[in-house]
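Annual report, structural modelling task.

Input specification for the 4'-deoxy-4'-aminopyridoxal-5'-phosphate complex:
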Amino acid sequence: MKSFLSVRAREIAPYTAGEQPSDKQYVKLNTNENPYPPSPKALAAYRAFDFSSLRLYPPLEMRALREAVAAAEGVSPENVFCGNGSDEILALCFPAFFDEGGAGAAFADVTYSFYPVFSEFFGVPYTQVPLEEDFTLDLSELTAAKAQGVLVANPNAPTGIGIPLGEIEAFVRANAERVVILDEAYMPFFGQSAALLTKKYENLLVVKTFSKGYSLAGMRCGYAVGCPALVDALARCRDCFNSYPVDAVCQAVCAAAIGDGAYYAEKTALVVSERERLSAELAARGFSVLPSSANFVFAKHGEVGGREVYEQLRARGVLVRHFAKPRIAGYCRITVGSREQNDALLAALDAFLPR
Ligand code: PMP
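The model returned the following structure:
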């Protein structure tokens, strides 16, 4: 039969998001969602929203949202771009900063698995720089890679390993001739954002999200901070796809959320303290746990394989993420949940791990 599909649609291997099975209620620790609810101020903004205004398109310039983000980040609204999740912004980075068939993108071999998908989709060649044996990234190797621009997730996913701000600044300086895209999706749990460095370095774009630290994964909003030239390039590319990617309710809720720093600082501290407890409890059960600066841990058991751990947990109603990929197939990525969720995970492990 004749195929009506483009070569791209036929051949692309899309990103696989974490599963959402509906056969029963799971303890869901597989997509790094925040266990706490959004800020009361965000919820109040939702309730106060004038839903009759939904007959209109949302604010095109997203002025109020960009002002709220700018105030929280210590930059100007001209330095802020907002999108439908940071995934959308990362996607737009490819047409905005990389030429099809050009010198390409460079990123780590073990990092956010959307980067190679975007590269393939937009026809951008890419180089994957191997992480060290201990899963740290030697930034000088990334600097040495031939590329039009580089992407670094900090903290990295799925390893959780964070790179100190001082090293990031030296890296941005060493790559002054090309764009550096820093994916700070998990930065709230590390607290070393490079967003303010965008005032100093025109080649730096910092991408963040409301999904993790702001407990708003269901709203789908992310933002980027950078100099106006980079922000404008993203906007021009966005306007070739969709002029209104961030809906009106989302704009209002996210603006309120980012204004409630005190609430989120408290919840983030709870996640961080649970992360430390969970890491220690996993180590006590025979896992080697990478040092995490994120809201998840990456752990490998000494005797039981990663796929087996994932399946045994799933059978007991606990979802974690397993990647059947070279170097990391022995590991599971486990989201740090509430104390109760983490206890449920530990109890499920105790039910099948060898003593
Ligand atoms: N970057 C990294 C490293 C992530 O793990 C995720 C979440 N899967 C994202 C970006 C995208 O998050 P969102 O689209 O929800 O903002």
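Residues 85-87, 112, 153, 157, 183, 185, 209, 211, 217, 222 surround 4'-deoxy-4'-aminopyridoxal-5'-phosphate (CB under 6 Å).
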